[in-house]
Design goal:
This protein has about 500 residues and is an alpha/beta fold. About 40% of the residues lie in helices and about 20% in strands.
């Protein structure tokens, strides 16, 4: 048995060192491809553990905030290097991540690499961050600067935990905040080990890690009086609760709450095999469990049959099974609850009379029945009121809907409570931009969709119920700072 196939136990990380949870409590994490297989155990932190982690971050904050941007950037660059320099360790964490999460091994390795890249990107902002804006009098000389907020609580979901960490952790650190991270209880082992590697390269208390049940310790973290910023990625309902809890201390929040992303295929779109593969990956990467996944596909009626045939062919090539196996291209959903949500949407669409087709091959039928698997599924011409159209599926199911003109397409795309991402598929650059600017979304892709089309230099976040604030980009760093104006009589500061 290889190291990655053995059960492991992860600890908390508080004040510069790993530590067991209060009373030594742990909880088990199982393989979603093989639910009877225990992958390992994570520390089950308590309210007292949360308090210790926050206070550790609070005590470390003054020295970390005073450190020059350039020195913090050097540490972020070192972290990026250490995360990937030991190939055997990267392979171990990738395989462990695959077993606890379910996504295919190729995607877990992609996440490992992306995390380091995002540390480098955040480090690159150091020179820009240290420049103040200066206003000369009369009537006053004023310096407009920024300062970090203090302790930041970062709450990470189970679907892409390392990639999402990279959208908020290095930004918080380069901005001068100290941090408490809570990974999802559904996918905590590899993320926690990765966070330990990062924390060991920072001064004690700058990065602390708490794992455990959100229902038990979530409010203690979000509502802690010493937390000065909350950054949460997850569901709308939990996001609302986070916002209410943070309001007790007027703690500002950044909320990334998912989406129901629409794609618009115009009559002149290039629809070759490469385009269909981009559509497939946009919708079905990680079994569709991605906030910015393509979740509603609106196609001009003149190209509808072509899109149906092309995307069906791409789906038919997929191999559904254990993500550890090299032939697998789609793994299971992460948990039984999410599988139930997706299967209920499929059943509703079928009972409403929509045409529903499942695709892909299943080499191990017995494993498929035991695990949390669902083959890639397309729903053709569903009624607009069905949950597969109105709600975020967060699974391998995609509705395909025809439209007749651009105005209708924009109206349908915007007819949603969500506003995270969208995409426009066309060869006409001018039309692409005209339509993109009409879409109610925080990010619009052109001729692509999802993680493979994402530019990490741009701010990421949504409108409407998709959230508040932004992660990634320079703007994502500014989320962790507040403006500070310093004024003096004219002539006092103009030479500083």
């Amino acid at each position: 048995m290889s190291r990655a196939e053995q059960q492991i136990t992860t600890e908390l990380f508080i004040n510069g060192a790993p530590c067991a949870a209060e009373n030594g409590r742990t909880y088990a994490i199982h393989n979603p491809a093989r639910p009877d297989e225990c992958v390992g155990h994570a520390a089950r932190g308590s309210v007292a553990d949360v308090d210790a982690a926050v206070r550790s971050a609070h005590e470390a904050y003054p020295a970390w905030a005073r450190m020059p941007y350039g020195e913090r950037a050097e540490l972020l660059v070192k972290i990026a290097r250490v995360l990937v320099e030991d190939e055997a360790d990267v392979d171990f964490r990738s395989r462990l991540f695959c077993r606890e999460h379910g996504k295919i091994l190729k995607e877990t390795r992609m996440e490992m690499a992306r995390l380091g890249d995002r540390f480098l990107l955040s480090a690159s902002y150091a020179d820009r961050l240290q420049d103040d804006e200066k206003l000369s009098g009369p009537p006053f000389d004023t310096i407009i600067t920024r300062q970090p907020r203090g302790v930041a609580a970062l709450i990470v979901p189970w679907n892409w935990p390392l990639s999402i960490l990279g959208a908020k952790l290095p930004q918080a650190l380069i901005a001068g905040n100290t941090v408490v991270v809570k990974p999802s209880q559904n996918s905590a082992l590899a993320p926690t080990l990765t966070l330990h590697k990062i924390a060991q390269l920072l001064p004690p208390g700058v990065l602390n890690v708490i794992t455990g049940s959100s229902s038990e310790i979530g409010d203690a973290l979000v509502g802690h009086k010493l937390v000065r910023r909350v950054n949460f990625t997850g569901s709308i309902e939990i996001g609302k609760h986070v916002m209410k809890t943070a309001a007790d201390h007027l703690t500002p929040v950044t909320l990334e709450l998912g989406g129901n992303d629409a794609a618009i295929i115009l009559p002149d779109a290039v629809l070759d095999d490469a385009a269909f593969m981009r559509m497939y990956l946009g919708a079905f990467m990680s079994s569709g469990q991605i906030c910015m996944a393509l979740k509603r596909l609106y196609v001009h009626r003149s190209r509808y049959d072509e899109v149906v045939d092309g995307l069906s062919a791409a789906c038919a090539k997929q191999v559904v099974g254990d993500g550890m196996l090299p032939e697998t291209t789609m793994g299971p959903l992460n948990n039984r609850k999410q599988l139930g949500i997706v299967q209920a949407m499929i059943a509703e669409a079928r009972s409403a009379g929509a045409e529903v087709k499942e695709f892909g091959s299943v080499p191990d039928a017995e494993l498929y029945e035991k695990g949390y698997f669902q083959k890639p599924t397309l729903v053709f011409r569903p009624e607009p009121g069905l949950s597969v159209v109105r709600e975020e599926q967060f699974g391998p199911i995609l509705p395909i809907i025809p439209f007749d003109d651009e105005a209708e397409a924009v109206r349908l795309a915007n007819d949603s409570d969500f506003g995270l991402c969208s995409s426009v598929w066309t060869e006409d650059r001018e039309r692409a931009l005209v339509i993109a600017r009409q879409l109610e979304a925080g990010y619009t892709y052109i001729n692509g969709h999802g993680p493979a089309a994402q530019d990490s230099r741009g701010p990421f976040g949504g409108f409407k119920k998709s959230g508040i604030g932004r992660n990634l980009g320079y703007e994502g760093v500014l989320e962790f700072q507040g403006y500070h104006s310093i004024s003096a009589p004219a002539g006092w500061l103009n030479n500083t």
